[in-house]
Fold:
Amino acid sequence: MLEFAISAPLETGAELLSDEVSANFPWLSLSILFPIVGAFLVPFIPDEGEGKQVRWFALGIALVTFLITVAAYLYGYDPSLSGLQLSERVSWLPDLGLTWAVGADGISMPLILLTSFITALAVLAAWPVTFKPKLFFFLILAMDGGQIAVFAVQDMLLFFLAWELELLPVYLLLAIWGGKKRQYAATKFIIYTAGSSLFILLVALAMGFFGGGTPNFEYTNLAQQSFGTGFQLLCYAGLLIAFGVKLPIVPLHTWLPDAHGEATAPVHMLLAGILLKMGGYALMRFNAQLLPEAHAQFAPLLIVLGVVNIIYAALTSFAQRNLKRKIAYSSISHMGFVLIGIGSFSALGTSGAMLQMISHGLIGASLFFLVGATYDRTHTLQLDEMGGVGQKMRIMFALWTVCALASLALPGMSGFVSELMVFVGFATDEAYTLTFRIVIAGLAAIGVILTPIYLLSMLREIFFGKENDQLVSHTNLVDAEPREVYIISCLLVPIIGIGLYPRLVTDSYTASIQALVKRDELAMQRIKKPSALMIRNTTMTPAVISSPRLPISQTRSEQLTRK
Amino acid sequence: MTSAADLAWLIPVFPLLGAIATGLGLISFNRTINRLRKPVAVLLLTSLGAAAVLSYAVLAEQLAGGEPVEHLFVWASAGSFILPMGYVIDPLGAVMLALVTTIALLVMIYSHGYMAHDKGYVRFFTYLALFSSSMLGLIISPNLLEIYVFWELVGMCSYLLVGFWYDRDGAAHAAQKAFVVNRVGDFGLLLGILGLFWATGSFDFNGIANGLSDAIASGTVPGWAAVTLCLLVFMGPMAKSAQFPLHVWLPDAMEGPTPISALIHAATMVAAGVFLVARLEPLYSQFPLVGLVIAVIGTITCFLGASIALTQMDLKKGLAYSTVSQLGYMMLAMGCGAPVAGMFHLVTHAFFKAMLFLGSGSVIHSMEDVVGHEPILAQDMRLMGGLRQKMPITAITFLIGCIAISGIPPLAGFWSKDEILGQAFTTFPLLWVVGFLTAGMTAFYMFRLYFLTFEGPFRGNDKALQTKLLAAAGKGSEDEHPHQAGVLHESPWSMTLPLAILAVPSMLIGLLGTPWNSRFAGLLNPEEALEMAATFSWSEFLPLAGASVAISTAGISLAVLAYALHRLDLEELLANRFPAINTFLANKWYLDDINEKIFVRGSRKLAREVLEVDAKVVDGVVNLTGLLTLGSGEGLKYFETGRAQFYALIVFGGVIALVVLFGVLGSPVS
Structure:
C-alpha cells in the first residue's frame, strides 16, 4: 500500500531542477491582465452598434498584448536556460495553498508568443463581425488573457482555474455566433471539456495534498514530491483523459468537428491555433514533466494513439464533404505527431512535437481563416456545391494552395521540419524495440501519403475544373481583399521562416526540452519492471546519435552477457 | 581568389529571387504585374541566364580538374543531433547544373512564343523560375535529406505546372495524380532515409555508404535490412523517374503546357531519380541484389514504355511513353553498375527529348489555329500530316531528334544507348535482349510519329473525324465553339530558335562519349574512362554496335513501309489478327484501370467507412450518453416527492445494500 503511494525520493532529481530566475518586471502578469482589463473596458467604448470603434480598440489591445509578450521574450527571457524564468510569486490564498505564480520556460514561452500573435490576427480576421460586436470582442480579449494564463501559470490549481475560465468565452462565442447547429456544438464542447477537466481538479488536489501538511500546488513543489508509481499512474491516466479531450486524441475527438464546424472564422483560428495546443502543452508540462515514471509506462500508448490519430483522422478527413469539418479532421491528424513526439524519449522528437504545435498553430489558423473567407463568398461549405472557383478568385486560390502545401508538410515550410524531427527523433530512439519503431514509423509515414490525397482533392474540388454555374450565378465571388492577404502573409512569414531555418524557433526552447527528456530518461531507468507491453528494451542506453552504431552494439553485447 | 564553385550557391538563388519577386507581385498587384509581360520575362531570363553563366564557369572549372567543393552550415540541431545543410560541387553536379540551366533557359525563351496568347503568361514564367531554382538546388545538395527537401519542391512545381490550366478537369486530375504517386515514392524514400540514418548516423552519401558497410561488417545491421533500406530509398527514384509500376503519373502529366513537358517531364525533373541513384552509387554498388532489382525494373519500364508508345495516337503521349522507356534504359544502366553510362544517356536524352517535345509543342501550337484549343483534337496525329511543307524547321529538328533517339550513328542517342546495351550485355545478358528489342521498337514508334505528323496529306480539316474523336473522348460536340479555321504556319522565332539550338547537341554531343575516348567518363570517373579506353577493342564494339544499328534500321524501315510508302497495312496485318495484344497496349497494360479500381476506389471506400464509424459509433456513443442522462433525469424526477420519509427509506435501503455488498466482497481496507 505504501509503495503504491510513495516512492523513494529522486536522488538525481534535484540537479535536474534548474534555478528559477525571477522577473525584473512583471511581464507575464501584465500580459495576462492587460487584455482582461482591456476586455472590461470594451462596454464603455462609444459605438453606434456597428462595431467600428470597438474593433479598432480590440485590435489595439491585442497588438499591445502581443508587444508585451515579445518584450517579455526579448528582455526577460534567456533561451539558453532550461529552468523557469520571468517568474513571479504572490501568495494569494495561503490557507488553500493558492499562489499567484507565473513564469515561463521553454515549453511555455513559444506558446505564449503564439497565443498573443494568433489572437491579434484573429481580431483582424473578425473585422466583418457586426452582430453584437461589443460582446464578441470582449470575449476574444478575455480569452487572450485566459489563454496566456494557461501557459504561464506555475500553480496547478491556478492552471485549473485558467483552463476552466477559458472555456466560457469559447462556449459563448460558439453558441452566439456559430452556424446552424451552434447550440448542439457548444453544449457538446462544454460538456466534453468541462467534464474531462474534472480530472484535472481531482489530480491537482491529490497531488497538492500529497504528503500532508499545507497543500501546495506549485509545479516546482510538485516536481520534487516523490509520488509512488501507482499514484503516478492513476494521476497520469486522469490527466491523459482531460488533455486527450483537448488535444484531441481519438476517440475523444468528436466534439472538435462539431465545434470547429460551427465556429466563425476568428473563433476558428483561436480554436485550432491555440486551444488544441493547450492539450499538448499540458501533456508535456504535467504528464511528462511531473509524472516521469508513469510517463515511462504510458509513453508507448501515447505513440500508438498518435499513429491512430494520424491515420484515422486523415481517412475521415478524406471522406468528409464539408470543408470545415475536413480541415478540422486534418487538425486531429496533425496532432498525432505531437503525441508521437512527446512519447519518443528523445530530445529531437520532443522538440519536434513542440515545433509541430507551433507550426500547426500557424498553419491551422491560416487554413481556418481561409475557410471562413471562402464561406463569406460561396455561402456554402459543401464541396459538391463548389467547383471552378479559381477562375474568379485567383489570389484566394494562390493563398489556399500555399497553405494547403504547408499543411501537407512541404519542405521549406514549418510543418515539414516538425514532422521530420518527430520521425528522426523517434526512429533513432533506442528506448523502443526496433520492430516497434519500424511498425510505427511505417504507419505514420502512411500519413505522408494520405495528407496530400485529401488536401489536394479538396483544392481540386473547390478551385479546379469548370465553373459551377449554380454557384457563380447565385454568389458574388470577389477575390481576396488586402486585409485577408495581409493576415495570411503574417502567418506565412513565420511558417516559411521556420521551414527555411528552424533554429529561429527551436533554439528558444531546446534547453527546456532537453532537461525534460533527461528527466524522463532517468525515470525510465529507475523503473524496475519494464512496461507490460513488452515494447521497450530491457536495457536502456541513451541514444547517442553522433555515433549511433555504438549504442546498438552495446545493447546487443549487454544482452549477450546477460544470457 | 574565389572560384566559381564557391559561388555556386548563387545558382539556385538567382532564379529563386526572380520567382519571389514576380510571385509577390502577382499576389499584391495582380493586374499590373500581369500586364508587365516583357519586363517579367526579361527579369526571369536574366536571372536564369546568370545562373547558366555561373554553371558553365563551374563546369569549366571541373573540366580543368578543379577539386570538388563542399560548404556546410548547421541547419537544425537538438541534443546531440546536428543536421548540416549546404551545397556540394563535383563533376556529376557540374554536368547537371550546366544541363538544367541550358535547357531551362531555352525552354523559357520558347515559352515566350508558346504562351504568348495565354492569360497566365506571368504566372507560368514565375513557376518556371521556381522550378529551375528547386531543380538546381536538388543537384547541389550534399546529403540525402536536402535532396529530399528539393525533391518535394520540384514535385510541387510539377504539381503547379501540370495543373496550370486549372479550368480543365484533366489537368486537375493529372496534377493531383502526379503529386500523390510521387508521394507514394517519397514514402519509401523517407523511410529509407530514416532507416539509413538509424543504421549509419549520417545523411551524406559517402557517410551512409561507408557507415553501412561498417555496420554490416560488424554485424549490427543485418544484410537483409540493409538491402530493404536501399530498396526503400529506391522507391523515390522509381516514382520521380517514372519506373514501373509508379510510372502512371507521367503520361497524364502531359496535360500541362508543352514547354513544361519538355523541361520537367522529359529533360530534368524525371531525370532526378536517375541522378539520385547515381549519387547513391557508392551505397548501391555494395549490394548486387539491389543492382539486379534496379536493372530489372529499368528493363520492364523500358519495354513497357516502348510497347505502349507503339499504339499511341496522341503526339505528346507518344513522346511521354518514349520518355518512360528511355528512363528505363537509364535505370538499367544504373542497375548494371554503370552510372557513367546512365548519366551519359541522361544528358543526351535531355537534349533530344527536350527538342522533340518542343517540336511537338510547335506542332500543337500550329494545329490549334486549325482545330481549336481542345487538346484531344490538337494533339491527335490522325488529324495531322503533311506539316513538313508548312513548318520546315520544326520538321527537320523533329527528324533529327527521331534519328538521335533511334540510335543511328553518329547522332547522340547512338553512343549513349549503345554504351548502356554494351554494359547490359556483359552484366545481365537476358536484360540485354529485352533492351535490344526495345531499341528496334523505339526506332519504329519514333518514325511512326514523324511520318504521321509531318508526311502525307493534311487531315486536320476533316470535320467528321473531329466529331468522332471528340465522341470517343466522351466529349459532346455541342460545346464546339466555332473558330475561324486558320492556316498552318511555322512558329515564331522564339520557338524555332531553341529548336535549332537544341539540334546541335542532339547531333554532336554523343561524340564526347565515344567508348575509345570518352571525355564524359573522363570527367565523371577518370579511372573508368582510362579502363574503358584500355579495354576497348573494335572487335567487341562493332558486332554489338552493328546489331543495334541493324535493329534500329529495321524498325525505321518498317515505319517507312507502313506510314510513308503505305506498302504495309499494319492494322490488317497485326492489329486485326492479334486484337488482344492491341487492346492490351491501347489500354496501357490496364495499369491505370487496376490503379483506379484498387487504390483510388479502395481508399475512397475505406475513408467513407471510417467516417461512418466515426459518425455512427464513436460519436454515437457520445450522443447516446447524452440521451441516457436526459432519460435518467426524466425518470428520477418522479422520485422527488418531497416526503421526508420516502428519502429516509431510500437512504436506509442504500446503506443496507452497501453493507451487504461489502459483506460479500470482503473489507475494503485490508
